[in-house]
Every structure is written in C-alpha cells, then in structure tokens.
Design a protein that fits this description.
Triger factor/SurA peptide-binding fold, 2 domains, 11 helices, alpha+beta, 13% strand, 4-stranded antiparallel beta sheet, single chain, 3-stranded antiparallel beta sheet
C-alpha cells in the first residue's frame, strides 16, 4: 500500500466542492502539478520522472505566502494543496480562473491549519516511534519504480538530504497522530445516538416503490402511418419470441444490444432502479404483476412497442434501521468530524500569529 501523509484541508467553497463547513482530504505530502506549472512556479514534487529543477531562494516557488508563528509557508506548499483540492487541473490545463480564488483560499486555510497542528504536536512533546518512522519511510520509498527515481526526487526536493526527508515524514506522522487523538477518536457516534436520529427523522428514511428492469423497444418513426405501425408491431412480436427464449439477464441484454431501438440498448437494456411515479402507468402495471426474471408481453407506450424483463421490485415504505444504520453512522460521524476540526482550528488560531502575504 502506498504511504500517504495525512493532512486536512479547510474548504469554504461553492457547493460544487463542499458543504460550506470544514471539509478534509488526505493527499500525499508531495503533490503533483502539471509540467507547465512546474516551469512557471518552480518545483512541485510528485512524479520523480518529471525531475523538476531544484528551487533556489529566488525561485517563485520559494516565495513566502504565509507565516505561522514565524514558520514560513511557501508558494510551492500552496500550489501543491491547490492541485490536491482540484485534481482535475491536469485535464483543465490548470485551475479554471473562476474557481481559482476559492481554491486558493481553501488551500491557504489547509496549509495554515496543518502547520498549527504540527506546532501543537511539538508543544505537547509528541514523538514518533523509530519503528513507525522507518516503516513509513519504507512505504514512501516503495512508491518509486527504481532507486534512481527516488534519488532524483531526493535531490530535487531535499538537496539530496535523507535527513530532510525524514523530518518531513516525521512532521506528517505527528500531524496525523494529533488529529487521530483530537478528531478521529472523538468522532465515534454511539449506537443509541444513531437509533435516536433514526426515530426522530422518519421522513428521511421513507423510500418510494422502485423497479429495476431491462427493456427492448421497437420504435416506429414519428407520425408513423398505419402501415408503419403494423410493421413495428410485427417486428416487436418477432423480438418477443426471441426475448422469451432468453434464460438470463445477460442473454436478454445481449439481445437488447442487437435489436432494441431505444437508448438503453448500449447498456444491455438496463434501467437502474426507477421510482414508480416516474414511469408510465402501463409500465408500472405490467412490472407490478411480474416476478423477477419474467419477461413481459409487448406493451405499447405511445407509439413504441416495448418488452420488459423485471429484475427487482422494491415496495415503498420506511427503510428499517438496520438497512440505513451504516449510512446514518457515516453521515453523523462526518458531521461530528467537521465540527471537531473546526473547533480545533479555532482553538489553535486563538493565540497564534498568522500573517498572509
């Protein structure tokens, strides 16, 4: 498994990226940006094969963007976080201009928070066991295909110093350890609280009647003549004989790919679960009378002649607690985790001296 350095990002972004609360991610410590950005901004580590040039004190990537209690955060630190937040930057040839201010703000909050957490871990005199540090360093080195790739990376990022790399790994492990203590371990939600949430929010767990099915359709042309409709019905009856001969969803799907004329043919005629109130009444009536695996007769929906194969019918009603327990737990723990991170961020900022450039 690849070694990952845990870090948390605070994003106050549009709904396209997150709920307007504190969100998080856990990117690798050495985040990667496209080659053209490396050339403009200086080295951003990630792919050892890119071999970015070593940053100098005058390099744009070495420019100070913030100080946290005197510790310097650079443009390279910020750029790595921006590309971690917006992983589609490569496809977009960079971060879209309309999103750049929000992404930059989120990245700045994250790198400041991470530095505050690291400083708090130091203040508490937290340590990393030698065996854990060695294991983490070995995991990190295993991400490289050859020793030459690793050495090229070490030279470009750390002037060839293994000690500097070790300190970076130690820093990440300390951040992770403090967040585990102050956030993760406190995010657990007791079973009684899960059940109480279920009981207090019954409307959230109501589900509609749904059908999962496959279809084969014959589609006469728009404004079809009587003769064209008769021809369509003849072709549909031929399709029905073949559909009735199928023995499985796969066989029916292969037939749909071959002869169906609706858009679902490219998906082997497959329809994902559809609520009953979103289907034509004649389709609902037909499916409701079928058993899973059964193939219907030809039914007419407007001018289309359609054959259905039922896969699953789920009646409407309230989902049981056991069915939704895992989802409730995940949602409540994520809410609690965000609240704890926000509270920790506020606490650490209270007496900190933070300067943004």
């Amino acid at each position: 498994m690849k070694f990952r350095f845990s870090s948390w990002v605070f994003l106050f972004l549009t709904p396209a990226f997150s709920h307007p609360q504190v969100a998080s991610h856990a990117p690798t410590v050495f985040k990667q940006a496209p080659a053209q950005v490396l050339q403009r901004q200086g080295p951003v580590a990630g792919d050892p094969a890119q071999k970015p040039e070593l940053a100098s004190a005058q390099s744009p990537s070495a420019r100070t963007v913030a100080r946290v209690n005197g510790s310097v955060l650079t443009a390279a630190d910020l750029l790595r976080e921006e590309y971690a937040i917006f992983p589609y930057a490569r496809q977009h040839n960079g971060i879209p201009a309309d999103l750049a201010p929000q992404i930059r703000d989120g990245a700045m909050k994250m790198i400041i928070f991470e530095e505050l957490v690291y400083q708090e871990a130091q203040r508490r005199r937290m340590t990393v066991a030698v065996a854990k540090l060695q294991s983490a360093e070995a995991d990190f080195r295993n991400q490289f295909h050859t020793p030459e790739e690793f050495n090229a990376f070490l030279q470009s990022e750390f002037h060839g110093s293994r000690q500097l790399l070790e300190e970076k790994i130690r820093r990440s492990l300390l951040i992770d350890a403090l967040l585990q203590s102050e956030v993760e371990k406190k995010s657990t939600v007791p079973s009684a609280e899960l059940k109480a949430f279920y009981d207090q929010n019954p409307a959230r767990f109501e589900r509609p009647e749904t059908f999962t099915f496959q279809s084969i359709s014959v589609l006469p042309p728009p404004n079809a003549t009587a003769a064209q409709l008769r021809d369509g019905r003849t072709r549909a009856d031929s399709a029905l004989r073949q559909a009735k001969a199928t023995k499985s969803a796969e066989e029916f799907g292969l037939l749909a790919e071959k002869i169906s004329e609706d858009d679902y043919r490219v998906m082997m005629g497959q329809h994902k679960p559809v609520a009953a109130d979103e289907l034509p009444p004649q389709v609902v009536k037909t499916l409701a009378a079928m058993q899973p695996g059964q193939v219907s007769d030809v039914i007419q929906v407007d001018q289309a002649y359609t054959i259905l194969r039922l896969q699953e019918h789920k009646p409407g009603g309230k989902a049981s607690f056991e069915e939704v327990k895992a989802k409730i737990e995940k949602d409540l723990e994520e809410t609690k985790r965000n609240q704890l991170r926000a509270a920790l961020d506020k606490k650490l900022r209270q007496n900190a001296k933070i300067e943004q450039m």
